[in-house]
Amino acid sequence: MLDLLIRGARIVDGTGASATTGDVGVRDGRIVATAASQKGGVGESAHRTIDADGLVLAPGVIDVHTHYDVQALWDPGLTPSPLHGVTTVIGGNCGFSIAPLVPDAVDYVMQMMARVEGMPIDSLEAGPEWTWQSFGEWLGRLDGRLAVNAGFHAGHSTMRRVVMGDAVHEAATPDQIEAMVALLHESLQAGALGLSSSLGDAHTDGDGAPVPSRSARPDEFLALARAVRDHAGTSLEFIPGMGEISDDRIALMTDMSLAADRPLNWNLLGSASPTPVYEQQLTSADHAAAHGAHVVALALPDVMRLRSSRMLTSMPGWGEVVSLPDAERRTALADPAVRDRLRAGLDAARERGVAGMMQWDLVELPDGRTVASVAAERGTDPVDVLLDVVVPDALPLTTIFPSLVPPMGMTDESWEVRGEVWRDERVVLGGSDAGAHVDIMCHANYPSVVLGELVRRRNLFTLEEGVRQMTGVPAALFGLRDRGVIAEGAHADLMLFDADTVASEPAEERHDLPGGALRLYAGAIGVEQVIVGGETIVERGVLTDAVPGTLLRSGVDTDTVTVPGNH
User: Fold this and answer.
1) Fold entry, domain 61-303+406-482+503-522
2) Which bin fits 433, alpha (ψ -120 to 50), beta or left (φ > 0)?
3) How far apart are CA 435 and CA 442, in angstroms?
4) Do residues 63 and 432 lie in contact, with contact meaning Cβ atoms separated by under 8 Å?
């Protein structure tokens, strides 16, 4: 008898093959039967049956770039990712893991995570104590306690601090490199999925100094990469910097991939560059391929949306009005003299270039409408929308950064260009940064954006290809064993959704982090069920209490993916 039977679904299996209508049977956390409805479906009975008529059944989404390392200590759901169909996450990215540790490194690493990944330091300090030391001890803290599957890289900056102490901003000696390599071997043996590192110019520690990995020389990167080669099912993750990637860093990524005999993924294509740089950045993949290595770029399949809490208060004369108590603020805004003064302050800021980013067609209200579109609806100008709609109710604003092709804005043509880039074989969809920068952004919702915006509304992907890009492709890149597809023998990590309605809700503020700190949180529309290991973890937008997630360990839950140049 089956544990679970999903009957009559439109099955999109994660391979890119055309959808079929049929049944899927699950037993002991694995898919054990699939059958087309036209051939009678699965005949076996089940303890639980889901009628999936009119719904799409797909593999659960695999988000390969998150920073849920700390949140995993207090939030078993790793929310809001599962609400959007995510069943597997990978953390420990950018060189920042919270294991391995030694007691005198805890404060430094905590402050670094707060600064570089935008995690509220009060929440980190109010959360569970960091009492582990080895990577294995850290994984043990999470084993059997998560709703989703999760794996973590060992972070270069963290290991460098453990080995080098306060000397992290100096070049490492041969003995120190050897000690880091030994620590990495120990972490990989305990189940770390690989090595992550960064040369990102924007990455600074709690003191505002460059994070430790930025002081490493090529021989250190290559020594660590060679250690990865000795462990099955491992990979590399890297941050080469923002903007165009220099020739020496392109060469370094190639050399690291060859030294490890593993793919290297880097983050984030286009990033926040004000000019299109993606074509130059993607030459890193071409250089790698020409030398027998494998380098791919992660790309966020959306525009970047950043909460702009200080946008208006930074404008001359606006701060004192915006900060007034509600009743006094509304009274002030009814005064023509105050309104004139605020307009003048905005004009002065624009003349000085301070308001240069305030393009009203790229500034959103909480309901997702732009200031410009609301002005058009009301037959007024954008400043009146601020004075009559935004400021009276203290509505938060979000600035849209048109990724990859900023000069093209949000035009239909810009979306077509982005679609071409996202379909490029040198690109993998991801880069959500879920769990980081939680006060200014929430891109954990990207699966709902792909399915609702890119597939249904804009036809940038077929449904089958959109699903494959978020499931089968990342599973193959990381060698995630028996995941990312719907097939007999695969893990029953699944999402069931309505293709006609699936979408992301606008991000909202929640004060639910330890210590009551704020984070942005986006729910999903049209995601009916999310299943991990055959157990439902999300039902109609609500998390259940189930914690069936597997803590992914290299070589146990992952297969080795090698690169052509070494074989």
Assistant:
1) TIM Barrel (3.20.20)
2) left
3) 8
4) yes
